[in-house]
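job 3f2a | input accepted
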Amino acid sequence: MATLSEYRERPHWSYSAVNQFVNICSLQYAFDRIYRLPRAFVPVALSFGSAFHRTCEWVNRNRMEGSMPGASDASALFRDLWSRQLAQDGDIRFDEGQTPESCGRQGADMIECLVKSIDPAEQVLSVCEPFAVPLVDTSGNVLEDPLIGELDTVVVSKGRKTVVDWKTSARRWPKDKSGLDLQPTAFLYGYVHLHGELPEFRFDVVVKNKVPVFEQHVTARTADRFARLVELVRTVERAVAAEAFFPNEQSYYCAGCCHVEACRAWHRQSRRAISLAA
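job 3f2a | predicted structure (278 res):
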């Protein structure tokens, strides 16, 4: 099976790309993925999430091999990976009140919380499983570019399979978030095309409280939601082809965007001249 990096070498769609265009900011999508603008800085959430995800991967690969890592070992690994991430990313933009040291302590506590919350009866079937599948509408028409992604882990408990995604969050999730989120739709669509069966989906979330809190949010998807996903991607394709990019200035992500200056100049640098003369 090819790796996710190999799948990324050809034109494709991903959950993160579609979500960025639809739910975050289409102009940010263009700056990142069309115009390839260099980032002015690295958001701390991106660096922190990378170290957290790599630690979760290590934990679950050990679980898959029949060995449950200790919470202290996992915390120590996060600290080591966080130090490497700091050196690798360089210009990280921290939020107010944050420091590299405070993020390291917080991440170590969060990993410890996660490990202590794992159900020992749950069996890990796969970790970081990549997929590249065709996007097919209800009439059997196939979009030109496939959907790619990577499943954090797949587990089974009492005969029931679940695709699990690891998350960190600044606050507790609303009850309806997992039901509305695009990621379970995209990832379960990929799983169905890979394996011919439809499991449920679960977010394993560690909330960044002073004392971290572990949450699980289980959700499911139907064939109709998959059909809606394909139509959504088709609509985004048309918008991208038309260069219909615009800022979302009330987005939750706006304050931490690394393309602030380019965004501020967007209306002055557009290729389409606008005349105000009547």
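job 3f2a | Residues 1-31+122-244 form one domain.
job 3f2a | closed
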